[in-house]
Structures are given as structure tokens and as C-alpha cells.
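Exercise 7.
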Amino acid sequence: MAHLIEDRHAERIARGLHGDLTPSGFVPSGTWQTDAWRASVVQHPRTLRRQLGDALLAAFCAENAHVDTLLTGLQPEAWETLCYHPSGPLTVRDLVTLRLTEVAMHGWDIRASFDPQASLSEESVPALVTTIPRVVRRVVRPDATRTRALRYRLHMTTPLTATMDILLNAEGASVESARPTDAADVILHCDTATAVLVIFGRLSLAEAIADRRVHVEGRRELARVFGQSLQGGLQQS
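Solution. The predicted structure, written as C-alpha cells, is:
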């Protein structure tokens, strides 16, 4: 919860609407480094949590209310206004999508710690799916032992049908639109919520396959390689 407050989406949007892309307390846009981000996303919320104490929930609710107020008053053209993001400016629309994924995913984290059967809400899945490319780039680390590129096709159904290709190579990974002309080394069939939990590191691919939540079309050993590659980075949105 402190992490969601510390992201300060309301401030980023408010400043962006006034042409300011440099919110105080953040690194300059475009200078973001993956490893530094991993360290800060762990340490900063812990510090904020200690500072807020019993006021944590109230601060979280106030941040959400501030975001809601800003969005309610937006004119249609304002959704394309650029706002600050460490990796480079994002539109208000894209920043709101990230906010939705953060709240949905970390909301699941909180509920899952009390209820092993907790599920992602169907309303959140479309936004979460759109951020899979960003998450893949973050969590898959470079590995020189990957001597040839592998193409993994992620075919998702229920409640949203979508297909995307994840290319795994020595430099890391990238996501492309699936094309019939591109042969996949492995095709992974699952519902969209399972795909999100696997890619976001909340569910191991091996466990999902064992539980028959993911059906593998192709060589199982290559599916195992993909699952192991997802463990190379910070497993969150």
C-alpha cells in the first residue's frame, strides 16, 4: 500500500497537465536504470510505511481520491497529455492504465496473503494484459547462454481473448504481435488471469502447468526455460 502511495500518480498527472515533467523526488525522466529501480521500489515504500504508521490507509485513500478528482475533470484531449515517468514521458491515458494495474495487482497480493483462492477481478484483466510487454522487459534479464532466440506464443482466453509472442534471447525479451507467418517454438494456452499471474511472477509456470491451468503445445523443456527466465527480475508491476 505504501508503494502505491509512493508512486504519486496524482502529482505526476497534475504536473503534466501544467506542462511539468519533472516531479520533485524522482530521477530525471529517461535516466531510469533497471537495477536502481528494483532497489528503490523495495526500500522507499518501507521507509514511507514507517513514517505513516497508522495513517497508511488514510493516505492511500487520499491519493486515490486525488487521482479520481483529476480524472473526473479531464477534457477528452487532455488524456493524451504527457506526464512524468522514470523510463520516459507517458500520456495521462497510459499512466492511468499503469495505476489500474498497480492497484489491481497489489490488491490481489494483499487478498491472496489471506485467501489462497483469491482471483483477479475480470474488470482489471484488460488493463493488466496491456502491461505484459512492459513487465516482460523488466523481469527477463540478459543471459549469454541463450545461444538462439526462442519464440513463445501466449494464447489467452476468458474473459479476454488475446495472443502475443514473447521473444527470448541473449539480450533479454521483447513482445510482438503474433503473426501466422512466424512459427512459435512453444505455444502456451491459458486464461488471461493465469497468464497475468505467471508473467507478473505471482504464479510459477511450472506450477500452472502441473495444475493444468496452462496447456503446453510444443517441447516441455523449452517451456521450462521460459518459466525460469521470468525469475530473473523483480516480480511485480
